[in-house]
Amino acid sequence: MRELSDQVIAITGATSGLGRYLAGELAAAGASLVVHGRDPARLHQLQRELTESGGGRAQVRTVLADLADLQQVDRLADELLEGAGGDGAAGDGAAGGPVERIDVLVNNAGIGFGAPGTGRETSAQGLELRFAVNYLAGYHLTRRLIPLLVASAPARVVNVSSIGQEPLDPEDPQFERGYSGRAAYRRSKLAQIMFTFDLADELAAAGVTANALHPATFMDTAMVRELGGTPLSTVEEGGAATLRLIASRELEGVTGHYFDGNREAQANAQAYDAEARAWLRQLSDQLVRDALVPDRPSPTG
């Protein structure tokens, strides 16, 4: 495992909350960063702060995308892999060709239950919003970046999930009946863990590990404050647990696990169901294909 000062770490949802904390700690340690957000002004400010906190030792590249739009997720991947035009960049030095490697990909971006009274919402492609942002965006981005992660091995994928999990319903995968923001969030987070386990099996021989975690309960973030609840833990607590998965040498080669903070834990039973995971992957691939080629008829059979 390389020293942090020799690593390139990509973080989605880096302009606030846990992602912002992780970016600050890693920049201070000298890591080079690819930080994602959806607000150009906040990304520009983040880039400036991270460059200063890293004492000029680390490069900070920004990438702009709304993860509620799979076409923007796809362009984000293009930018990292191919150096597409820089239209999505923010701040000086944000563009400039493909990244040479990614040592760690942290899928952190997400949305919560929604404000009290909020009904079912949809993404740019008409998908249930929490499933689209919390799960499917990270699924597609990670799959696009697999060749780069494998070329960078040993590499890691860290999926920031939740202890709140609820089984997905194959008969109603887009939660069109009996919708609840809390349940939608929990389904999306279980989907993320299911993907983590599949990815770990797929990449075990390639030197890329994949793990998921619940960083801490009700951290003091905008997501929690939107609910009107009282924070029960700090961003620093969740950050420490996440940094352990990102950088700890004791976790070299450890893959296919779900952690509650610093301890290994059991996810919802559906995460260990191979048939359920196969169904989710097939569904996800189909949804991505339909999103990127919207006029193409869906295959039958």
Describe this structure in words.
The protein has a single domain, classed as 3-Layer(aba) Sandwich (Rossmann fold), CATH 3.40.50.720. It is 41% helix and 13% strand. The protein has 8 helices and 8 strands; from the N terminus they run E-H-E-H-E-H-E-H-E-H-E-H-H-E-E-H. The protein has an 8-stranded mixed sheet with strand order 3-2-1-4-5-6-7-8, sandwiched between helices. The longest helix is centred in the middle third of the chain and has 23 residues, at 129-151. It starts with 7 loop residues before the first strand and ends in a 9-residue tail after the last helix.
Quick summary:
The protein has helices spanning 17-28, 40-53, 70-82, 129-151, 181-203, 222-226, 235-247, 274-292; strands at residues 8-11, 32-37, 60-64, 104-107, 155-160, 208-214, 257-260, 263-265. With 301 residues, it is an alpha/beta fold. The protein has an 8-stranded mixed sheet with strand order 3-2-1-4-5-6-7-8, with helices on both faces.
* Average residue pLDDT: 90
Estimated share of beta-strand residues? 5-15%
Query: Termini distance?
Result: 45 Å
CATH topology value: Rossmann fold
Number of helices: 8
**CATH class group:** Alpha Beta
Q: How many domains is the backbone divided into?
A: 1
Give the CATH architecture. 3-Layer(aba) Sandwich
Please summarize the sheet with the most strands: 8 strands, mixed
Helix content: 40-55%
- The residue ranges in which pLDDT falls below 50 over 5 or more consecutive positions are 85-94, 296-301
The CATH superfamily appears as: NAD(P)-binding Rossmann-like Domain
Side by side, the strands of the main sheet go 3-2-1-4-5-6-7-8
The helix-and-strand class reads alpha/beta
